[in-house]
Each structure stands twice: as structure tokens, then as C-alpha cells.
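To whoever picks this up:

The nightly regression suite flagged Phosphatase PAP2 family protein as changed. Nothing in the input moved, so I suspect the structure step. Input below, exactly as stored in the fixture:
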Amino acid sequence: MSRFASSTTSIHSSPPPQAARNAAIAAAVLALLAACGGSDYVDVSPVTTAPAAPADPGFVENVPLPVAPAFVDSAATNQQTQLTIDVNAGVRALSPFLELWQPLTRTVDVSTWSGLPGQGTVLNQAVHDRNIQYVVDATAQRTAAQATAAYLDDRQNQAYSIVDGLGPLTAAWRAGAKATTTITAVAADATTVKYDDGGNGAGDATTAAFGSVVGFINTMRNNGSTEPAKRFYKYPRPWRWSSAVKVVPALEPAKSPTPNTDGGFPSGHTNAGMLNSLAMAYAMPERFQEMLSRGLELGENRILAGMHSPLDVMGGRMLSHAIFTGNINDPANAALKQKAHADAHAWIQGQTGTTANTLYAYAHAAAAGADRFADHDANKANYLRRLSFGFSPIKATNGAAVVPKGAEAILETRLPYLDAMQRRAVLRSTALPSGYPLLDDAEGWGRLNLFAAADGYGAFSGNVVVTMDAARGGFYAMDAWRNDIAGSGKLTLKGSGRLALYGKNTFTGGTQIDGGTLESAADGALGSGDVYVGAAGTLASKGPGQLAIGGNYAQLDKGTLDITLGANNAGTLAVRNTATIVGGTLRLRFAGGFKPSVGASYRVLRAGTRKGVFGGVVADGYKATLEYSNTGVSVHIDG
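Regenerated output under the current build:
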């Protein structure tokens, strides 16, 4: 590579006008030809015409409503009255349980049910046996710390106990809510005395600054009873199925003496815990995944307590999603949910000294020792495990996912820059496979994976256009998608925000950056298609290795390639086919600890073929010069 084949600007100067730049390039080319006799010719002629952007698929993904009756249309029918499965939306949402267990009678009447095993028919013995054995094993292996956590999640009001899922925001939240509890530890006589929480649950709904938030949390539990389903399905608790189930000793006084009104399926504590978690996640989406993780942790604690089985907990989770969706879509709650979100942020930001753009970092600043939900990947694994508790599929696993009517509203504060149909597409693309016991309900509640949905799309189908607005702050300004994105669709980023892709993505439709910054935080983040950086767009490469571009790369004049260079070619681009550079800026940063050597050259772009040149280079803290070969671009560190 010849230094004459270069285009030079530095951090201390502005790029020359286009005409002057072209003349300088032409002169350099002539000098090179004269010196080398043409044998080492490097093409540094500018390109004025950009190649076409990746073709749009021609359609936007549409996620139809399920054929089944919608819970949100009849949420108010989930009441503690003598109703049948045909008219109670809550009972109906859990109807796949009838494939596993036949209750004594298909009504909510419990007058002829003893509440003990034997009154009802197990229809899938293998699933039932594993369901109870899971509790036997879990309670036999339970640690003292798990027993304490299970006790507190049982006896504290769930609206109080799950708040610690907010991590660094917990103290400020409880101060705003003025939430209290009378149970802070396991009393010495708890094995013989039943203690009930005399606190105020979610808090004081009359406070000016935070009352709307408390009121919102309480409102999201409307129509939230599990009693109709318990009395319809009549499935005993695990400790009634097997004497090998070891209930936490301190919870012995909490065991019901009336089994015919104490069904195990679904878990009421899980339902209540998840409803509170969903409400807090909606109001404070900076801890969305952590709050959902906390809700399912409470559900697993019901198993560790010996009070519920995995199927009980799975049913409680499904019902909570349906109930929350009914409430969050209720027009009567429209103003409340917006005010709760606004007031929660105003209070928390005031207490923590943060802004809309710094709150997320503050909310995730604690180490694992101070925040047990600090590890995203551990949360993800635990959440996925708790969705099915290791049951094997009992049906085909390739059934198409359906998305319940209105479920997209759960994500409207977490993914606010997407429209409702896009959120439905996210839910469908991140849903669990089909086939698991209980989870294949007709509306789709069982297969929802809200943790994965908060990490963005799982697959692109059609044209996915994302428009972000940095001026609005929060997730409008910056977000990260961590799923491995598949599919044949295309991603187009517009606006002024920053979207980071962390997945090992395989989508084939290409990437177009018309505005804002698309940050590639993984080597395969851009899939296998073409990448096109428009005049107002920035591609930021910050991965641990080379960013692989499976097709062609094109950058328009005034577009920006922003590389964070590290050791072993970290952050550099490897373009499989042609890199066409119509102009624009190459922005060079340096990863923590990496210091370039003055006088050295660093190859930042490799391609099958390179065409065109950048308008200039800006290198943090250094003067730099661009160097070109016919298959790449290097940066020479001048000083």
C-alpha cells in the first residue's frame, strides 16, 4: 500500500471542499502512476453514485389476532361467582389444564369436592408425576436462605416483597410509595403462630408525588382473583398429593384447614406477585426485565415453600399476563397509566439525581453483591427456566405462535419507539416453542416470553422500520436489542436515537441506516445481508472482534462509520463483497486500554473490493491519515 494513495484530514482540521478533495486525489493518483509505471495502481478515485440500498421486502409484518375469544373483551367476568368455563375469561385462559387433569365437576362449585387427591382424574400421568416430584426434590434440597425467602414471599404482601427487584431504585421507590410491612424476618415462634402482614402493600395512594403510582399498581389487580379458576380446576396442593413434600416449617400455620376451598392450581401468590411486577415494570421500564425476573422468582419460591407445584406457578403466571393486559388496555385506566409512568420517573430521578438519559445506567450500576438481578444473562436463563420448569414438550414444537389481543400494550413503555403492530411482532418472534404442558392456550398467554421481548425482535419478517427520537430521552434516545435475530426481513433505522445490537444475528434482508446510530456490539450483529449507511446515519462498530458484513457495504457522503478500535482488530470491518464509500466520515475511537502507536498503520476495513474514499478521518487524540488499497482502508497515526 502506498502512502501516496491517501486522503488526509485530522482531528484539528475540517475536510476540504469536494472539488479540492477530488483534485488532490487525482493528483495523488497521477503521482502514483508516474512513480510506479502503473503496475501498483491503487484506485482512489471518488465515487459519486451510491449503489442501491438493500431492497425492501415489500411488506410490513402483520400479526393477526387469535381466533379464540379475547380475555381483554371479557376481563370483568373473572369474578368469584359460580361461573363455568364458557363465560369466565380467567378460567378459560387456563383451559389446556383440562388435557392434564379432569376435575370432579366442571363448575366452580366446590360443595362436593373434598380438596384431596382422588376426586378428579389425572389424564397425563407422566406430567402429573413429574409435577409433584419436582416439588418433592425442590423442598428436599431447599437451603435455609431459600426457606427464609419463601417464607417472606408467602407472608409479606406481594406488592411490598417484590419491590427489591428495582435494585438501586428500591429505597427511593419505597420512600415515595411510603410502603410498609410488619414482617421483616422469620419470627422464633413462626412454626406455631401464623403472622399476617399489617403493612400497606404497594404504599399510600394519597401522596401527591407518588400516589398515582400506588393507585396504578392497585388498579392493575382489578378482576385479578384466582379463586374462580381454583374452584373450577380443583387440583390439590402438592403437600396433599405427597407426604414427601416438605413445607417450610414456619409456614405450617399458614396451611389451610379447609382443603375443598384451597385448590393449588393456579397459584394465587404467583398471580399477585406477577401483577405487581408487571405494573412496576410498566411504570419503571428501566428495570423491566429485573422486575419480571423478581415476579417469577416469587413464583419459584412458592414451589420451594412446598405450597405449589410448577403447573400451579405456570398457571398463575399465565393468568397474571391476561389480567394485566385487560387492565392496561381498559380505557378507564388510560390517564392513570400515563400519569403513573410520569410521576414515577419524576420522583425517582429527583431522588437519584438522574435524568431521562442517565436513569438506566444508575438503575444498573450496582454489582451483583448488592443487586441479585445485576447479571442479565443469569436473569435470562432463570426466567426461561421458570417459564416451563424443565417439562418436556408433549406435543409438536413447531406450532405457529399467536399473540393475545392487547398483549402488545405490556411493552409500550419498554419499547416506546415501536408501534403496536411492531410490538406484536416482537412478542410473536420471541415466544416459546409450542408443545409444553399447559402453555399451548388458544390466545397465546402461555408462550409469551416477556423477558426476551424486552430485548427486541427475535426475527425480522418484512420491512422493520425503527424511528427513534433522541430529544425525547430514555429508550427513545438509546436502547439495546440482545436477542439473536433471524428471518429474511430488513432493518431500517431512522431518526436521531441510538440502537445497539448485541445478538449473533442471521437475518438476511440487509440493514439501512437513514438516521441515528446503529451500534454493532457483536461481531455478527448485522446479519448476512448488505449494509447501507445513509447521509444522516452512523454505523458504530464496537464489537469484541471484526464486524462481519455478509454482503456489500455502502456509505453515502455525510454518513459516518464510527469504529472503536481495540487489540486484535476489534471493531474493524470485514466486508465479504464490495465496500463502496461515496464520502462521509471515518470516526476512530480507541477501546479502553488500547493505545495506538504513532507512526503505525491500522487496517480498519477489509473488503473483497473497495471503491471510493472517505471525506475525512477524525481520530480521538491523534492526527491521522487515511490509506487505501484496492481491498481496504487503513489509518496511519501521524502523531
